[in-house]
Design brief:
Layout (H helix, E strand, L loop, with lengths): L4 H24 L4 H27 L1
Helix pairs in contact: 1-2
């Protein structure tokens, strides 16, 4: 897989969208610890993919 730019953008967007959906679920209803864990995980992975993409973009 040579061009990973589109792949990283899609993964970052998907992770951040899932984080927003999970945050809405937490706000709108009673939540458990697993909901908070998934929110943190989605935010972490979304931020990491975004940082890797921006670092790669800056290199070129």
């Amino acid at each position: 897989m040579q061009n990973r730019k589109a792949f990283r953008i899609i993964l970052a967007a998907a992770c951040l969208i899932f984080a927003v959906v999970k945050a809405y679920d937490i706000i709108s209803r009673d939540f458990e610890w697993i909901d908070v864990f998934f929110l943190g995980a989605f935010l972490f992975f979304g931020a990491m993919y975004l940082m890797v993409y921006l670092k790669e973009k800056k290199k070129k």
